Amino acid sequence: MSKTLPVQKNDIIDIIFEDLTHEGSGVAKVDGYPLFIPNGLPGEKATVKVIKTNKNYGFGRLVEIKERSPYRVEAPCLIYKECGGCQLQHLSYEGQLKMKHKHVMDVLERIGKINTTVHPTLGMEDPWRYRNKSQVPIGEQEGGLIGGFYQQRSHQIINMEQCLIQQEENDYVVNTVKDICSKYGVRAYDEARHKGDLRHIMVRRGAITKEVMIVLITRTQDIPNRKAIVDEIVEKVPNIKSIIHNVNNKKTNVIMGEITRVLWGEETITDYIGDVKFAISARSFYQVNPEQTKVLYEKALEYADLNGEEKVIDAYCGIGTISLFLAKKARQVFGVEIVPQAIEDARKNALINDIHNVEFAVGEAEVVIPNWYKAGNEADVLVVDPPRKGCDEALLQTILDMKPRKVVYVSCNPATLARDLRVLEDGGYKTEEVQPVDMFPQTTHVEAVARLSLV
Ligand code: SAH
Prior knowledge:
By secondary structure, the chain is an alpha/beta fold. It contains 10 helices and 22 strands. The strands form 4 sheets. An 8-stranded mixed sheet has the order 6-21-22-20-19-16-17-18, sandwiched between helices. Helix 5 packs across helix 6. Its EC number is 2.1.1.190. Keywords: 4Fe-4S, Iron, Iron-sulfur, Metal-binding, Methyltransferase, S-adenosyl-L-methionine, Transferase.
């Protein structure tokens, strides 16, 4: 059967890259047969070696670039290739923004058959050192702890001293905590044998307040030499506000477990987006790029176009970030979120900002909102910001029944955005415009906000 393929394993051929995949691989076609080749950029001519062929597509390796893309740059990170956390460092930032714009347009068109205006991606002035949260898996090397990232396609941990998309202070905090835990004999979690203590170190830092939270995630109920470790962290980490212990004794890729306790300081740290203050606890979702979060929320608010009279629903509200932005301009906001701790934070956040026209409910958006509607409630504007898998069908159906005048869809996955927009368009909405916002420079992730109105 493989004889019918236009290329064979080990062939060395000349190609032209046409596209870039979500993983950041270049795509070239040989008689319509796609080859995926890491590190190739659209427009480049190259010699490649075919390393694997499947029925419908194959993989290759770059041998030589014959004609370079004008957007090709040298990746500044020394561990870029091994890490896999970033996929686009070899593409200039201008090239990244263009690629993300094209990706959103292509996916909306191909998956959703959506015909709308997609604006150029809103990017950062300085697209480095933006992340407020660092989360590193822990391993061991010659008796000491190492922490960094899993080597691509493996569970081998590689040590990392710095990460160029992380706020610099977070690198220092992670390294310091690693050293302190090593010094007091903490053993790394051994995934294969399900033994050892420390699985992950998580650090979150308020970009404006500078407050630091450290979360130690262990398999074991206790941390050896806990008191000495905590004392030394408090001594060495500037602006430390909260040290949290989370226990995860399951064999799982999920990072945090069910038990969370405060070892030192507060249960939350605070930060600001614009002039709204947020308390954030260990288990709550909080956007990782604070600078661009402001851009994203302002766009969502602009698209909601509120005049102070509306009833607004914020589905998938997390700690109430978008809800509180909306509440300043609306009559009433109703936020729904599945993580109970996030809703606790959301209620606290309403209080600390002296915002009283907002109510929060814990539960699945696709259950809570239909029930709320059945009880006779309606909304003029509905905002959704679902996780990657998009909105549940039951929620989309309730939107079509309730018919809010406007829907603002904040999405971290263009594919499910396209799918859901198609359902909403078939039910009577029109996608007026879409704004991609670059929340994750150097990576292929794309965030986009869509504005829909009832026609
Ligand atoms: N709008 C918030 C959170 C967006 S992330 C912000 O910008 O910060 C998506 C949120 O949806 C997460 O907080 C997640 O816990 C929540 N979530 C996931 N599935 C859900 C569901 N079925 N119903 C309600 N919330 C859900």
